[in-house]
Amino acid sequence: MRDVAVLGVGQTKFGKHPDKTLPELFAEAFFEAFDSSNIELREIEAIYFGNFVGEITDGAANLGGFIADEIGLAGIPAYRFEGACASSSVAFREAYLAVKHGIYDCVLVGGAEKLYSAGTPIGTRALATALDSAYEVNSGLTFPGVFALIARLYAKAYDIPLEKLREKIAHVSIKNHKYGAKNPKAQFYDKLGNLKVEDVLNSKMICSPLTLLDCCPMTDGASAVIIAHADFAEERVDEPIYVRGTGQASAGSLFRQKWDIVKALPRKKSAEMAYREAGITPKDVDVAFVHDCFTIAEVIASEALGFFEYGKGADAVEEGLTWIDGDIPINPDGGLIGKGHPVGATGTAQIYSAVKLLRGELDFVKVDAEIALTDTLGGDFGTLVNVILSVHRR
Amino acid sequence: MFKEFFSELLEGNLIGAKCKECEKILCPPKSACDCGSRILEKIKLSGKGKIVSYTVTYVAPIGYDKEVPYVVAMVELDEGPWIVGRLEVDAERAEKEDLIGKRVEVYGKEFPTEQFYPDKQRRVVPMFRIIE
Ligand SMILES: [Zn+2]
Fold first, then answer.
1. What is residue A331's predicted lDDT score, i.e. its pLDDT?
2. Is A99 domain-assigned?
3. Does residue A106 sit within a domain?
4. Contact A135 B28 (CB under 8 A)
């Protein structure tokens, strides 16, 4: 088994890209990653590409080959991975395992999605395909609906009055929009940077108790990462960022998880797998990029990842512990809420921000960090992936 | 399997499965128990339980937009399993009152299907009626 490292990373501006196809959008992210990797194009041996609902938004499936051809690499193995919002994180983990076990030396990972251009009614239906298609969607359950159910469960589980909980979790939106407004690649760049609790509580109700500002937006965007075995990476770039551990776990329909829902047990399993491989504990993580598809989602993630005790995550964000000057900065790039959520591109976009931050290249926000964790959730806990990145090889 | 579950629900029967190995009750039934066993007995559940969570949906997916606002609920059945369905209360009441813990009974209601739903003839929704 070999050590694995990230060379270059790339990300498009997140927002609306109706003028580009999925492969065209991906190419833009790929060129940025390639141009900072110091490799020859032909050294890329395979492509691991994440996309969630290309069939629905763009009438596009079988995307591996089209992606490869778009960037001049037709001929090499090119795979499309689907794990809902975690699609490109699943792709990343598979790419990592292939390089680690010596199948390939250097591969391209990434993702692209066009949900904003699809419009809200189709986008909402497309996202709902990540729920139980027979037994959850039939009632008209949506993704905001799932996390609205979870918010009420959380309030009951920890005996927090619902209105109090709404105020506490509003701070996730305030924080992530504050950082997102500073991120030039974010969908809400230069917007919504000074929200107040009342703004979040009083914005349009989507699925009660969650308002529009509790939700991440619909986004078009792409991201790309080039990884290789560590010796190869050290020859090519000055600051390889090492992949120290990964984890993945699964679960079935939300309703079958019962009270485990608020504990996000698959995430706990996945994170423990990643921590074990990296030989670290949650305390060693300096910065985390977690799946804040909704305000309450970041809170339960911060607990299941081991940063806070169960039931204390909502207090933690309200007290500032997850802000950039807190104990464990979470989503200093704006997260999904501030930066945007191009579903299939989100996992490798988290890795983009993590790598940039570890290299000190995330100019708009200052966090001193040597170890970063990414956390991507697909569906209602159906697919969970965690990645631990470090500036140190060992 | 899922078609049978909903046909039975329209007849007033909530169908589940009981594992012969570990006694766990599954509702709706699955192909295998969480323990891996395939020895499952078809059972009829009481159809009664209590609300554990709910949400009033104002923004619906395409195919469901004519039904807003609607209340989706998660119910813990008396036999243990949780199921998802629609709560038969108006949005205003669901926003004003805390309905968690209220006892409900379930029945099936037929809605028009939509292009992505696996049953191309009809879409049956478990409906929860508050009984206290
Ligand atoms: Zn069993």
1. 98
2. yes
3. yes
4. yes
- Strand bridging mode A47-50 / A78-81: parallel
A146 inside domain = no
Is residue B5 predicted with pLDDT exceeding 80? Answer: yes
**A134 interfaces chain B, CB cutoff of 8 Å:** yes
Q: Which residue of B has its CA nearest to A118?
A: B62
- CATH code at A11? 3.40.47.10
3-state secondary structure B13-61: CEEEEEECCCCCEECCCCCCCCCCCCCEEEEEECCEEEEEEEEEECCCC
DSSP assignment, residue A195? -
| Ligand 1 center to B73 CA (angstroms) | 26
Q: What is the least distance, in Å, from the CA of A191 to any CA of chain B?
A: 23
pTM (two decimals)? 0.98
Angle at B79 between CA B73 and CA B80, to 5 degrees: 60
Q: Total structural domains in chain A?
A: 1
Q: Could you give the CA distance from residue A236 to residue A97 in angstroms, rounded to a whole number?
A: 21
What is the pLDDT at residue A289? 98
| Mutation target among A131, A138, A211 for the B interface, most CBs of B within 10 A | A138
pLDDT confidence band for A189 (50 / 70 / 90): very high
One DSSP character per residue, A34-95 reads HHTTT--GGG---EEEE-S-HHHHHS---HHHHHHHHTT-TTS-EEEE-BTBTHHHHHHHHH
B-chain residues within 8 Å CB-CB of A148? Answer: 55
Let me know if B81 is exposed, middle or buried by CB neighbors in 10 A (0-12, 13-18, 19+): buried
The CATH code of domain B2-130 reads 2.40.50.840
Interface test with A, best of B9, B50, B53, B65 (most A CBs within 10 A): B53
Centre of ligand 1 to C-alpha B54, Å, is: 29
Q: What is the pLDDT of residues A202-233, one digit of tens each?
A: 999 999 999 999 999 999 999 999 999 999 99
Range of the domain at A8: 4-119+218-236
CA–CA separation, A21 and A25 (whole Å) = 6
Question: Annotated catalytic sites of A, by residue?
Answer: 85, 341
Is B67 near chain A, with CB under 8 Å?
yes
Q: Is residue A340 part of a domain?
A: no
Cα(A381) to centroid(ligand 1), Å? 22
Q: How far apart are CA A366 and CA A317, in angstroms?
A: 18
What pLDDT, in 10s, does the model give residues A141-186? 999 999 999 999 999 999 999 999 999 999 999 999 999 999 999 9
b/e sequence B2-13, b meaning 16+ C-beta within 10 Å: beebbebbeeee
- Tracing tokens 């999904």 back to the chain, one arrives at A336
| Per-domain residue ranges of chain B | 2-130
